[in-house]
Amino acid sequence: MRYGRTVTGTFISRPNRFIAMVEVDGVVERCHVKNTGRCREILVPGARVVLSISDNPDRKTRCDLVAAYKGDMLVNIDSQAPNAAFGEYIRTSGIFGPDPVVHPEHTHGDSRFDFYVESGERRILVEVKGVTLEFDGVCMFPDAPTERGLKHLRGLRRCLDEGYEAYVVLIVQMKGMRVFEPNYATHREFGEVLEEVVDAGVRLVVLDCVVGEDSMDVDSRIPYRFHS
């Protein structure tokens, strides 16, 4: 997945979850934040951040904040990037077999899943989540309670009974993580339900990414662990 023009700047503040103030070459830019999550451990005053410059002259904000350095590690925080990168990965990696037919944003029952994939006789429903939270090489999801996430997990579990394959794909928007685990401290129920649906047959795949200032590409699987 590639961006067009990008520039780096220095994060100043985040007046609300949609807007950030960033200094670029001595000028303060009012930017759109492409992630409504907290990102408190990433977007700290003085952090070096990456902005994608829009080609739309009618936009109220000229730039989108899409990535930030956490020490020496570059973390993509664009909430649209995981789906874009995984959509490319489906077509190039063979994860669901050769020549898959991919349908993004597929409604099934009372849920809307990120992908429906047909590959030969296989019918596959996929929910993708982006992971930006990490501590000491352990990446975690979610960074805030997510009732929507619970609905997706339970919806995938029901799809198994209808003959579908069901996947939760976690796209870790950084490189260098040792392991994934649910963020039980923030939303214990999500972790417990994730364990339950995986035990029932929903497949959990955790993939890290090679992140550049103008790109993010799915790279390698990393292991996961549950507390129980």
Name some characteristics of this structure.
five-stranded mixed beta barrel, OB fold (Dihydrolipoamide Acetyltransferase, E2P), single chain, 228 residues, alpha+beta, Trna Endonuclease, Chain: A, domain 1
Descriptive notes:
The protein is built from 3 helices and 15 strands. It has a 6-stranded mixed sheet with strand order 7-8-9-12-14-15. It has 2 domains: 6-75, Beta Barrel (OB fold (Dihydrolipoamide Acetyltransferase, E2P)); 81-221, 3-Layer(aba) Sandwich (Trna Endonuclease, Chain: A, domain 1), CATH 3.40.1350. The relative contact order is 0.14. The two termini are 36 Å apart. It has 228 residues and is of the alpha+beta class.
Helices and strands in order:
Elements: E1 6-16, E2 19-24, E3 27-33, E4 48-53, E5 63-70, E6 73-76, H1 81-93, E7 101-108, E8 111-119, E9 122-131, E10 133-135, E11 138-141, H2 147-160, E12 165-172, E13 179-182, H3 188-200, E14 203-212, E15 215-221
Parallel strand pairs: 3-5, 9-12, 11-13, 12-14
Antiparallel strand pairs: 1-2, 1-4, 2-3, 4-5, 5-6, 7-8, 8-9, 10-11, 14-15
Helix pairs in contact: 2-3
